[in-house]
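Fig. S4 source data, part A: sequence.
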Amino acid sequence: MDFQNIFSMVPYKRNSYKVKVFRYVFFLIVILFVAFGAYTYYDYQKECQSNAGREAQTKAARIVSQNDERLENLRQYYITMSSNDSIKWMLENNIRYSDYSNYKKAYEDMGSEGIFSDYVGSFTFVNFRTGWVLSNKGLFPLYDTYNQDTVMSIYEDKTAIAEKNYWKYDEQGVVLDSNIDRKYRLTVETKGLNFIMRLPATSYNTYAVFIANINTDTWKKWIDQWLEGYEKVVVLDKDGTLIYATDTSLEDICQELYIKEQTDGQVRTDHTVYMVGKAKSSILGWNYYVFRDVKGGQAGMRLPIAIFGLLFILIIVSLILVSHLIYHPIDTLLKDVSETEAQNSYQGNELEYLAGSYHNLKKDKQTLEGLLSQQQDKLEELFELRLIHGEVDEEEWGEYLEGFRLRSWKYFATAVVILNLGDEEIQSMVNEDAICLKLLSEMPDSLKEKAWMPPIYNASAIFAIFAEEDEDILLEKIQTFYTEMQEYASNICDYNILMGVSATHTNYHHIRAAYRESINALTFKTSIGTEGDVAKEDKKQECHFYLASTTVLAKEYNHQFEEDIQAAVKAVDKKLCYQVTDAFCHYLNQAQGHEAELPLYLLRYVNSILITAVDAGIHLHEIYPDGLKKTYRELLEVVEPDRERRYIKCKFIDPVIRVRMEYLESHSNSMLQEIEDLIEEKKGNLSLTECADILGVHQTYIWKVLKMERDRSFSDYVEEYKLKESKRLLLESDMTVAEIAEQLNYTNAQNFIRFFSKSTGVTPGKFRKLY
């Protein structure tokens, strides 16, 4: 019977008999477990709901108790503080800026360095009699206060007029951004929960008020720290208005519970069943509702189910083990045969299948030998890559030599081959990876055999290791390889090559260092002639040998390049960025720093670009969504200076400049308004440098915005403003020419008259008479 033809066409599930027996027993066990499990699950759900309700009620009570305790401690602290000498001094004296030591003590007592400083977001002391305000933002007059009306309404609040101190929640209070709003320092923050205390505390007639604004984020943390992942909280004030919710979709449910005055129970949403617990704050009168997911909170009650499941698993495992022990001999033989034939499985009698497979395997000896040879090539390539990275230890070294049947030589050296593309524009258009892979795949055996192991591809280059017992023979072999490789590359891809060769070594541990020497040698200006002497390089000889004397840095690293590239990026000047990068790469090429230092200098340089981008408001994840790890690794693996320069421009400078330009163009209108406001505020007495420093941008950006939006330079725009303002003052005021000149910051009236006459063709006096 021809087993090969029969079983090569018919699909078959290998363990058919064993699976059948297993299925029957398995189904019987499942039926029994389902019946028992249904009853267990029903009882389990009832217990879970009961426990979840108790936990929700307890959690709500704990949250309220802790929060009330903290708020009461804070209230008692400030009541005690009101009798301090520093506060009495603030109440009884007219404050001056020169009284720094006195109001500094009051400032510290109010909470700047107190035990409650993390509770309080801001604090403010207002003396209506003296008209001064002292807050965590500083000392300033009451009439300068941005939200003076809000402060007065708090002080004159009729609903709490009889209370010396009380708590007040203000949803509409003012909160300004300290980074963008100039009125931030003159604002009394009242948004959120506030502790109000009228002063003097011992007098019926009060004329001052102290406001402590509770840090909303801290207050929320007090609540959130009690919650587990399956618990949510909603806080309503005494009128049923929402104060805080970890899930706003539960607000309507809480409103219904508030109206019904329900303190616990079960509620359902679209996908979740919650048990609810409620507690009320005795200080604020707020209602805290804790929602506990019944399913989420079942972790602590899963022991019975876990035991049940474990028992089920043990039975199944036992069933599998018994089936496996009975079927093991046949199963092992089937597995070995199917893996050998590189096929999944077949249908039919297992014994017939095994007989047919054995018949087929006898004919596949050559196929198996070819497969082993192919796998060995890949293993040899992996071995060379691990040598480059220094990952092969002493034990593995011996195993690899024996496994690959490699001879251990006395001397060895490494070589790195890259395409000599010349002009940078040509380089950017050539797919070096594809060409290098093509050269490797079609490389003749005569070239491969000159290397100790077959050459491999790594980082857009071809890498090879050479070994010999005699150093002179080794160098001659490398020179022969270069000559033939040059001719081969020219015929295949019509490009010449550059080859960097390391110094000779005697320890395989040095292969990683030799690899770096090969890369560094690509930049050296010396080569070895056919007789091994160091000779002057000509245009045809591009085989560079590593010279140890060039590895010492001739001078200290120049940090000016980092400052220059940061200034160029900040100025959004792509051309200047390119020029600085060219100079930096040329500097590294000429200086030839120690091989361990060059990666450090490269990373410092590109980090200067990225740090400047971050400072300018660019989010790096927009440019590098997969992170920078791969980009850094590719940069450090670039084996030739010109490629390093192009990589920095392409991967770092170009995307940063592009994103920065898009941002600046989209915000040019708002920046123009800020420039115009600043010029008007300074009455035109402002230089481009001063304007850039105040607005926190580069001078070039201001120049570009004015040029793009107004088609004017900065100086032209300032002159136009001064001319417009002088005309307005001449026509709309009684100021003399000298007074106008002084207001516009001219050194004398004559300079102003010359400027005005040059711009309008008439003197200021004549202009006033004519118009």
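Fig. S4 source data, part B ends here. The longest strand covers residues 411-420.
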